[in-house]
Amino acid sequence: MRVLVTGGAGYIGSHTVLQLLRERHEVLVYDNFSNSAPESLRRVKQLANADVALREGDIRDGAALGASFAEFQPEIVVHFAGLKAVGESTEKPLDYYSQNVSGSLELLRLMTQHGCKRIVFSSSATVYGDAHYLPIDESHVLQPTNPYGRTKHFIEEIIRDWSASVPGSCAVLLRYFNPVGADASGRIGEDPMGIPNNLFPYIAQVAVGRRPHLNIFGADYDTRDGTGERDYIHVEDLARAHFAAITYAAKSHGCEAINIGTGKSATVLEMVKAFEAASGRKIPYQIVDRRAGDVARMVADAGKAEALLGWKARLTIADMAATTWNWQINNPDGY
Length: 335
Ligand code: NAD
Ligand code: WQD
Hints:
The chain has 335 residues and is α/β, with parallel strands linked by helices.
């Protein structure tokens, strides 16, 4: 299919584009490079030995995005573009509402105008807020606790209403849990700007000597070893989930929210140990205060993804650690 990928130069986007090219889809990436660089796609093209059309622009720029629709006539959109830092979203909420919500509105308006009726959207487990029960299934109440999470919730509702108003449309809202890892080649991976917000890129930068030690945010949670427990999902499995969602959307109608996780969880200390085993390096750490807004445990009920998409995570924490290390050691300063 002809797939327009917004934000396709970013971390999850680049791995997904690689997967789509390998499956012989035709891809146009639309990205403003606010949190990425064209180099990721240059490497994706090399790895896939296939071409990707690339247009630089902001999703809120209707003229530029509309020109890409007119030129490429996409049959489906995979929508990654947006801002994603929880902490930053509390400081700059209007930026988040503008880029994420207004950007998605512009995208849907152009999809309608150009007769494109299918979308796969990057949502997040953050839409659930504090878990009332675990594992979390898709019917859990949605009560996000920060502006970023609220943008994802609002976009989900907007897409649901759009889908209901467009006969024959199909929307898949993928709620990712904690994406980590890199392509096995070590050529593409996560390349955060500044100090990483997330655990795994931080550990990787400690391992490679860019940072002295890891701060573990609390060891007094009600978990196996007192540190936070999360459902980490390998980015290669996540990329396969997008392929499965596209295949599903091509022959289905309606709007479905689907968790993308493994159904298993790991603590911070277990992730540190996995990384030490993969890298052969000691990860020095200090236990510090809890981070505001963190919860003790998050784990997905991943049953709907298997039932509807025929998708299931395959890769382990050892794979996540090994591929992250391979990416980091080969690209110590990122792209
Ligand atoms: P990323 O920042 O690496 O990728 C986002 C891409 O979108 C970047 O290439 C950026 O340049 C581009 N972009 C941002 N704003 C844009 C705009 N206004 N117009 C055009 N391009 C724009 O992030 P990622 O980790 O690959 O995440 C991709 C998507 O998945 C995001 O929507 C994010 O909210 C969602 N998500 C990520 C995680 C995670 O932990 N990484 C978890 C759940 C959901
Ligand atoms: C994981 C665990 C931390 C960093 C976030 C977003 C969520 C989604 C995924 C986008 C927690 C601990 C972390 C560090 C630590 N993103 N930690 N030291 O918070 O589960 O989820 O990313 O949609 O919306 O909130 O992921 O990687 O930040 O933290 O001890 O330096 O690691 O306390 O227990 P989180 P994370």
